[in-house]
Amino acid sequence: MTNKENSGTVPESRLNLAITGGIGAVAPDILLLYSKRWTMPDITFSLELYLVATLMYVLLAGFVASIFPYGKLARGKNSLWVAFGIGVCLPIVIAGVTTIFKSEPVATRGEASVGRFVDLIAF
């Protein structure tokens, strides 16, 4: 996209927006991995589950960031920040919805427990 808008700025390409949204989706994972050792140290997840969940979030956030209707106000300089924000918010929203609909709570009593994929998404 090289057409200039009325404001004189060049809109970001869909690929740049998708990459920025995907990078934004990794930010909550970093916080999750760092904070999990204090919030739920008895629940462990396999590396494969982390990688699948992260890849799912990155691809979905990249897709949503690439098709998001940014409008005139977010075109140009601010569109990358909006794409990054979409990437950050998407895993948080999905985790919140998954927590609401999750059927059984994860509670451990003294011994380590292996978490399921839905537990990781809801975490």
Rg to the nearest angstrom?
Answer: 18 Å
Q: How many domains make up the coordinates?
A: 1
Strand content: under 5%
Which oligomerization state do the chains in this entry correspond to?
single chain
Number of strand segments: 2
- Mean pLDDT across all amino acids: 75
Largest sheet: 2 strands, parallel
Structural class: mainly alpha
Distance between the termini: 38 Å
> Major sheet: order of its strands?
1-2
Count the helices. How many? 5
Order of helices and strands: HEHHHEH
Q: Which consecutive residue ranges, at least 5 long each, have pLDDT under 50?
A: 1-8
State the helicity in percent bands. 55-70%
Outline type: elongated
What does this structure look like?
By secondary structure, this protein is mainly alpha-helical. It has one domain (14-122). The chain has helices at 14-39, 47-67, 71-74, 79-101, 117-122; strands spanning 43-44, 113-114. A two-stranded parallel ribbon has the order 1-2. Helix 1 (14-39) packs antiparallel against helix 2 (47-67), helix 1 (14-39) packs across helix 4 (79-101) and helix 2 (47-67) packs across helix 4. The longest helix has 26 residues, at 14-39.
Give the SSE layout.
Layout: H1 14-39, E1 43-44, H2 47-67, H3 71-74, H4 79-101, E2 113-114, H5 117-122
Parallel strand pairs: 1-2
Helix pairs in contact: 1-2, 1-4, 2-4
